[in-house]
Amino acid sequence: MPLTPEEEQQLREQIRASLEAREQQRSTVQHQEDQGRQQQLEERLRQQIAEEEEERFYRERGYVQHKNRQGIIEWVTPEEAERRAGRRSKRKSSGRRKIRQRNQILQWALNIALVTVALGVFYYLLRYNPGPARVNHGNIIVTSDVPGAHIYLDGTEKRLLFTPDTLRNLPAGAHFLAIYKDGYTAWPPMQRIQVEANGTARAEFTLKSAGLLGQISVSANLAKFTIYVDGIAVPARPESVIEVPAGYRVITVVKEGYLANPHYQRVLVKAGELTPLRFTFDPGGDIGYLDIS
Fold first, then answer.
1. Domain region containing 221
2. Model pLDDT for residues 196-210, shown as the tens digit of each residue
């Protein structure tokens, strides 16, 4: 039966209303999807910025990335990363590594025994041969072929004093000196030094390596600068090879009127290997120097 014009018009309006509702629903869904994608992009951008800033923050402080057992990336110090890596590889360590560890323990025990014997000798000599008492004072210059050794005077460690240095205002008479540096054995183990009134005596030691050594070479765009290893000036010419104990070392260079770039380099010195370092000196402008004593 044919539709009347009114029925046809009503049907068309219903179909149009249905299409408009469907289009409105589609537009709403599309808008929601666009908003969701925009939020995801914004969240991803925020996450990327946060990761970049986190990486910059930790790398400026010398940290490195390390993946833990759960597969999570952590920022740790190079020492901590080495320690964790060593702990993981411990299960697979060979008999040769066990021998090295045992030898290292024996070397530590030997060093401790030598220091103990030296302290015992100090006590014995001070008790039974104290030397003549004098009112006047003198000085002792203590040096070693490898700088940075702890100084012991009459059985007591002189804190904050390392070779080369001068012990000042000591009572005139006999004094007993020893030095200690991690990874080295001092020779002679102990020296008896006679301090004269208002005089200056010298005590020279030789440090023999008791552990593993590596080498570093330092170069720069300018000549005549001072090299510091772990904050201690090293008597070496630029471009020369310096022997240092294996492990992490902080290397700095100083030249009057200039600033080094980078300010310092923290490197892992491996036993038996040469590590080259390069610095650039830039004019420092108005700068000063702080003398800490």
1. 213-283
2. 999 999 999 998 776
Q: Which amino acid, residue 55?
A: E
Is the Cβ–Cβ distance between 175 and 187 less than 8 Å? no
From CA 246, how far away is CA 165, in angstroms rounded?
Answer: 25
Which amino acid is residue 105, in one-letter code? I
Q: Which residues of 4-32 are buried (b: 16+ CB within 10 A; e: fewer)?
A: eeeeeeeeeeeeeeeeeeeeeeeeeeeee
Domain presence at residue 41: no
100 and 204, same domain (yes or no) = yes
CA distance 172 to 196: 5
Q: What is the pLDDT of residues 117-173, one digit of tens each?
A: 888 888 777 777 655 544 589 999 999 998 989 999 998 888 888 999 999 999 999
| Pair (180, 109) in one structural domain | yes
In-domain check, residue 291: no
CA–CA gap between residue 284 and residue 293 (Å, rounded): 24
Residue whose token pair is 């025994």 = 113
Contact 196, 172 (CB under 8 A): yes
CA angle, 285 then 290 then 293, to 5°: 165
**Stated pTM of the model:** 0.33
